[in-house]
Amino acid sequence: MVWLLTGLWHGAAWTYVTWGGMMLVLLAGEKYCWGRGLSRLPSPVQHLYTILLVVFSMVMFRSSGIGYGLSYFRSMIGLGGRPDGQAVYYLLEYWPEWIACVLASLPVKVWAQRSLERREGPCPP
Question: Mind listing the pLDDT tens digit for each residue in 73-96?
Answer without folding.
Answer: 888 887 876 666 777 788 889 999
